[in-house]
Design a protein that fits this description.
With 290 residues, this protein is of the alpha/beta class. It has a single domain, classed as Aldolase class I (TIM Barrel). 46% of the residues lie in helices and 13% in strands. The protein has helices spanning 20-32, 52-66, 81-93, 111-124, 135-138, 144-150, 166-176, 190-195, 210-221, 225-241, 249-257, 274-286; strands spanning 4-8, 13-14, 17-18, 37-39, 73-75, 98-102, 129-133, 156-161, 181-184, 200-203. Helix 1 packs across helix 2 (52-66) and helix 11 crosses helix 12.
């Protein structure tokens, strides 16, 4: 259902507040670049530091600006199942086409707890839902057998797999037998994951290079594997640079250097160190971004 080059869009701030004007401009930049869907309020969108009204406001702004040109997949995950249900219901109300739900973080549920969490949200809200597995941030790994149990639910349509493990991604794809799509959650392995059967990527790099990320995915889907491989290798250095400090510090710094929005992040994130900023700027110059 949700395939291709999907951007996990940043939430631009100005003097501590959400910069709605810049957010709308970033949406236009993505659509002009061929992005297939937009995810507001994910990890890259600093959802964990948005209050409830801001969270829903960002989703509403993106829905309004997109105006049905591409799907909007709202980040609505929480470590509280009740809160995840509430956010998902509200996202549906303001017009989101789907929702992205990170595994509950900090409380470290068992596999049975994860199953019950996702089933509860899917039972409660009739909207297409993407599970999001990123154990490096959450402290818990949604294992392939658990994904396969959830793949039969009609409201669960995909998994964003961000373990960095091609083995785990392959096991999920094999077990689910096409019942749900699997999306790469790591830019640097989009091509190999698609080679294993993934349907696309939810990308950080697309924030600054939407045309190039879309071109990679489109080339693969067109059967032009040599072109897709070439683009994968060309993008590898800049994609790695997006993680030289905690996401979204590097991508916001990059957007700031490009003049797209402020590089402002919210505590406990802080501005990029000067040494890493110089390193990032040098890489961006190699790509002609600045």
């Amino acid at each position: 259902m949700f395939k291709g080059s999907i951007v996990a869009i940043v939430t631009p701030f100005r003097n501590g507040a959400v910069d709605e004007e810049k957010l709308r401009e970033l949406v236009e930049f993505q659509i002009a670049g061929g992005t297939d869907a937009i995810v507001p309020c994910g990890t890259t969108g600093e959802a964990s530091t948005l209050d409830y009204d801001e969270h829903i406001g960002v989703i509403r702004t993106v829905v309004e600006q997109v105006n049905k040109r591409v799907p909007v997949i709202a980040g609505t995950g929480s470590n509280s199942t009740a809160e995840a249900i509430e956010l998902t219901e509200k996202a549906k109300t303001v017009g989101a086409d789907g929702c992205l739900l990170v595994t509950p973080y900090y409380n470290k549920p068992t596999q049975e707890g994860l199953y019950r969490h996702y089933k509860a949200v899917a039972d409660a809200v009739a909207i297409p839902q993407i599970m999001y597995n990123v154990p490096g941030r959450t402290g818990v790994n949604l294992l392939p057998d658990t994904v396969a149990r959830l793949a039969d639910h009609p409201n669960i349509v995909a998994l964003k797999e961000a373990t960095g493990s091609l083995q785990q991604a392959s096991e999920v794809i094999a077990l689910c037998c096409g019942k749900i799509d699997v999306l790469s959650g790591d830019d640097f392995i989009t091509f190999p994951m698609m080679s294993c059967g993934a349907a696309g990527v939810i990308s950080v790099t697309a924030n600054i290079m939407p045309k190039e990320v879309a071109a990679l995915v489109d080339a693969f889907n067109a059967g032009n594997l040599e072109e897709a491989k070439k683009l994968h290798l060309q993008l590898l250095k800049i994609s790695n640079a997006m993680f030289i400090e905690s996401n979204p510090i590097p991508v916001k710094t990059a957007l700031g250097l490009m003049g797209k929005c402020s590089d402002e992040v919210r505590l406990p994130l802080c501005p990029m160190s000067e040494g890493n900023k110089a390193k990032l700027a040098g890489i961006m110059k190699e790509y002609g971004l600045i």
